[in-house]
Amino acid sequence: MSTTTSAPPSAAPLGESSPLASRGRGAPGTRPTPVGRTLRYLAILLGVLFVLIPVYVLVITSFKTGGDASPARAWALPHTWTLENWQRAWTALAPALGRTLSLVIPSTIISSVLGCLNGFVLSRWRFPGADIVFTLILFGMFLPYQAVMIPLLQLVLATEIPNGIPSLILLHVVFGIPITTLIFRNYFETIPHELIEAATVDGAGMLRTFSSVALPIAIPGFVVVGIWQFTSAWNDFLFAVFFSTPRNGPVTLALNNLANGALLTDYGVSMAGALLASLPTLVVYVLLSRYFIAGLMSGSVKG
Amino acid sequence: MRSRVRRYGPPLLLISPSLVLVGVFVYVLIARNLWTSMTDNHTAAQANGRKDVSFVFLENYVALFKSPQFQHSLWNLVLFTAVFLVGAMIVGFVWAWLLERPLPGGRIFQTVYLFPMAISFVASGVVWRWLLNSNQGDSATGLNRLFQMVGLDVLENPWWNQVTFGIAAIAIPAIWQLSGYVMALFLAGFRGVPDDLREAARMDGASSLQMYRHVIFPQLTPVLMSAIVIIAHMSLKSFDLIMSISKPANYQTKVPAVDMYVFKSSFDYANAAAVGTVLLAFIAILIVPYLIQQHRERTR
């Protein structure tokens, strides 16, 4: 890959880390005409419009007063901007936001560490059959959780792990293993063999090679995996709905309850709540989009 | 023998916790689920173990596939997947093509196109429920109101609130949310086309369009395959979006994943498990060949 020009050196071994970076030099081809370029921009802006229309609706509705939400003014800017919806959404969601943090942080850390161990072994310290094992683990990434949900409920019940956040941590750790293993395995594949081999020639055992050589170079991998796990655990709804209630579950469940609970939806409060619940992952995305994309790509394209 | 243990013992030990967890939570539970789906575990008393269950083999599956209710779910799933897949492929591909060559502001557009991936289906469901409101005429809000405002009243429609084709409306937010992902996949594909190929085509006097058609697009076939597998399997699993836009009890928008939730809620564990297994079978048909092919490439 020669597209790492804009990537920080530490991220270089990720290779695919900047698959969306523009080519370093102009692509060969015919010179674009002014008309062609204008048409291209117009088409791009059409796409931007499609993507941003829901954002416009979310923002204006979240600042509207109840009386301002009549159908005739559905698309208009608020008459008077109010923070009331935001305050009510905050009151309704704050406890769930806190619980989501206490769910997301431990499950992200634990599944990243497990993924790093697995990725290292499956890439650099292969045992016979390692590739078969890897493929069997990978299948877990595509598993429709509905196909294990009933026995999973019974299993969690049997372990006496309380419903709500504790059992959700367990589930996100376990079902995070396939993707974290995949990302770390692909990451270690990109690291020159010589680095690891040098350590083993020096007589270092596997654990020492891992902790003194592999772990330090795996930091960009941890960023990618961490963002990925953080986002997917934060946004999870399926496990939440089966293993928790709006009173002890994460914010997706509380938000769904806020938006769908009453007979008549208060769209002002729900949309403020939707924005509130999305802020953490959006901030992470905006600040670290390169790593976010790297995770996205390794979740699909093999190394 | 001792050297083999010394060589392979530590790595196996290191990954054994993960192997045990994945082995139990994926493979043992799949088997256990298959067993439950072949019993008559249809009541709360049986679900709680207060009443015995007995083996009925494929009875639940036969009943499911015979019931018009479940047939409607399958129809919805097929329609939803078809619209979602085709829509996301076209939009994602066009976006990638538009942004493939360097362009001032190109990165910003990519970031905008991809941002819906970062938010949950539940959050986007809130706004899409409003946009896809089925009210028409004076009480219309959402997209129907927007159509009135721009003089396209003919486009007003009940969206998802329609029995046969309603589910297709819910594919629109799905396309909105995942086209950016497809774009990212195709962009990586475009980047993978060697510059020599483009150069050679240009030397041969190919026009820009000819170069794309005959040189670059054929190179994107593997990416297209990956994208189809990924989007199709997500579509088969779709649950969050449908739950947040519609309601589990709505006949218009039911799909197997929603049925599974409804069965579980009424303690009909046998049917819930059977629906889960049906979903697993659909996804396995799609995923297993893909994983085997990737496995072959790795070991070659």
UniProtKB/TrEMBL annotation, chain A:
Subcellular location: Cell membrane; Membrane
Membrane topology: Multi-pass membrane protein
Transmembrane segments: 41-63, 103-121, 133-157, 169-188, 209-230, 267-288
Chain residue ranges for the region called Disordered: 1-32
SUPFAM superfamilies reported for this sequence: MetI-like
Chief site of localization: membrane
Family under the similarity heading: Belongs to the binding-protein-dependent transport system permease family.
PANTHER family according to UniProt: ABC TRANSPORTER PERMEASE PROTEIN, GLUCOSE IMPORT SYSTEM PERMEASE PROTEIN GLCU
Name by which UniProt lists this protein: Carbohydrate ABC transporter permease
Species name: Brachybacterium halotolerans
TrEMBL record, chain B:
Chief place of localization: membrane
Domain of life of the native organism: Bacteria
Pfam entry (one): BPD_transp_1
Subcellular location: Cell membrane
Membrane-spanning parts: 12-30, 74-99, 111-131, 165-190, 211-234, 269-292
InterPro entries with a match to the protein in the record: ABC_transporter_permease, MetI-like, MetI-like_sf
Residue intervals of the ABC transmembrane type-1 domain: 74-292
Topology class, membrane: Multi-pass membrane protein
Keywords of this entry: Cell membrane, Membrane, Transmembrane, Transmembrane helix, Transport
Family under the similarity heading: Belongs to the binding-protein-dependent transport system permease family.
Protein name per the record: Sugar ABC transporter permease
